[in-house]
Design goal:
Blueprint lengths: L10 E4 L9 E4 L10 H7 L5 E4 L3 E3 L2 E3 L3 E3 L2 E2 L1 H22 L5 E5 L1 H12 L6 E5 L17 E7 L7 H13 L3 E7 L7 H16 L3
Parallel strand pairs: 2-3, 2-8, 8-9, 9-10, 10-11
Antiparallel strand pairs: 1-3, 4-5, 6-7
Length: 211
């Protein structure tokens, strides 16, 4: 864990052991922390550098990346500010470590903040795997996402995310130019082996093979 107070996010960093792989930015869900998605990151891209920050907002003692007003109702002003702050952290951390922009792998709240960064600061990310994501902001993406690869994996029995909301996110990112693949799995809100297998294949085909 870093002790550098000039980087404002508590985080874990694992250096690459296999040169040439695009780093992964791991973004946990509500109640998680900087350790939660490290095993997933190692599965998805063995040997890649991993950057895993902890959300700075506490909700009933549980870390999140931005505030919400109710289940599925986000504090839009806070989303914008937190997305920009996280994008600043990503760019600073990658510059210091000599890495290119990472691929975000976010789950739930982590997927939503990754989507918000795509909306506002697309240059901070090379692409994204959004696991159980919702529309983070009601306005359309402001940035140019032309050619940016995005995988969205939704659950057909997800009690938290309406199917229409995930579809709207996919449509908005595609309208901004992203190369979106949206798949709906037989799953609820939690992750399954299918999520892992599909994300592994997508990353290998889209990025890890040398794009």
């Amino acid at each position: 864990m870093t002790t550098d107070t000039s980087i404002p996010f508590v985080h874990r960093y694992e250096p690459a052991t296999e040169p040439g792989r695009t780093p992964l930015l791991l973004l946990h869900g509500t109640g998680g922390d900087e350790n939660d998605l490290l095993p997933l990151g190692r599965l998805l891209s063995p040997g890649a550098a991993l950057i895993s920050p902890r959300g700075q907002v506490l909700e009933n003692g549980m870390p999140r990346f931005f505030r919400r007003l109710a289940e599925g109702v986000f504090d839009a002003e806070d989303v914008r500010a937190r997305a920009d702050a996280l994008a600043d952290f990503i760019e600073t951390a990658c510059a210091r470590c000599g890495h290119p922009a990472p691929i975000a792998v976010g789950f739930s709240n982590g997927a939503n903040i990754a989507a918000a960064i795509l909306y506002r600061r697309p240059q901070a990310l090379a692409g994204a795997v959004l696991l159980r994501a919702m529309v983070p902001l009601e306005e359309a993406p402001a940035g140019d996402l032309t050619g940016k690869p995005v995988l969205i994996l939704s659950g057909n029995a997800d009690p938290i995310i309406p199917a229409a909301n995930a579809e709207r996110l996919a449509a908005r990112l595609a309208a901004a130019g992203a190369e979106v693949e949206h798949r709906v799995l037989r799953a609820a809100h939690g992750l399954t082996q299918s999520d892992v297998a599909i994300a592994q294949t997508w990353l290998a085909q889209t990025w890890l093979a040398g794009k």
